[in-house]
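Q: Here's a chain of 394 amino acids. Please give me its 3D structure as tokens.
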Amino acid sequence: MEIDLSNLLVVAGVAVLAPVLADLSRRARLPTVVAEIFLGILVGPELLGLAELDGFLDALSTFGLAFLFFLAGIEIDFERIRGAPARAGALGWLLSVVLGGVVALALHLSGVIHATVLVALALTTTTLGTLMPILRDSGVLDQRFGRFVVGAGTAGEFGPIVLVSVILAFDADEPLRATLLFAFAAIVVVATVIAVRARPARVVRLLQTTMGTSGQLAVRLSLLLVIALAALAAEFGLDVILGAFAAGILVGIVIRDSEAREFLGKLDAVGYGFLIPVFFITTGMGYDLDALGEDPATLLMVPGFTLLFLVVRGLPAMLLYRKTLPRPDRIALALFSAAALPLLVAITQIGLDTHTMRSEVAVSLIGAGMLSVLIYPLLALLVHRRGERVEPPG
């Protein structure tokens, strides 16, 4: 594979520029992920033509997507969301599945879309991996309200990941391979039990002593686990993001009771410092602006899908949390739940590969995902903070 370092150089430059651009507006801070995608569109072949996608960038982008879900899995603390947050999150997502199915069927009958199942699934997603840095930086993650956001986000990310993997198995004309999802889950559970209970003193000591040296055993083991479970998922006919997400959950469970701040900082540096920006920037570089501008109807679908994200994911939040959260927090939760992006890339790619989704619908969905990540978290934070001023927590 021939590597053009000039393409990587442009991507690296954009990765540096994106957080600077995101910080220009301190009052309503632009999410870094949105800045990365927009700058990727700008430098890509559709506009300035400073860089183009190649095999090397595609490989880095795939691993960046896997690492995004790996870090999202680490952040999930099942002890914190156990009980009401987990139950409401799961029930809310199931209600979103029903709403998404009704909306997608109506769009199909009206001739707007053909990939009914994939569009319905896309409408039920929540980008927890993208929300986590926003929740952590704003302090929401440490609040009671944050537990419900993570609970809803976990269901809105984990549920679609599982269904995407099942759809991939059936699209491969091997329905029986869908049953391997349970085998994969069993392997992950067994690996988690072994990792939690088997802590050889020598290995623990080696992990601690190499944390500040060139050995970096803990980081290397984590990378091995991401690649191993992603490869296993692919071998079972599932999506690699399911393997990466499972690897993150496993690592998160193992380190939950230990002093892992330094270790998590190193993983953040690998992910958010290098691999994950490559994924978002290349997503922008590959965005088909021509398909968006050729037909006014395609352009109108972008705000349309953005609004549908809020309806399908937000309506359950408004209905199910009436006795649990005050009205401002319910609105904020609805807005947070409606933010969707990374999974949309995977879902639309499946639709394009299987020729069940038209390119203009895929482009509109991704454009709507970018708008949702740009608008909804910012509005959610504003509503939540205003609610705190009116009714202090506790």
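Q: Can you summarize the key feature?
A: The mean pLDDT is 83.
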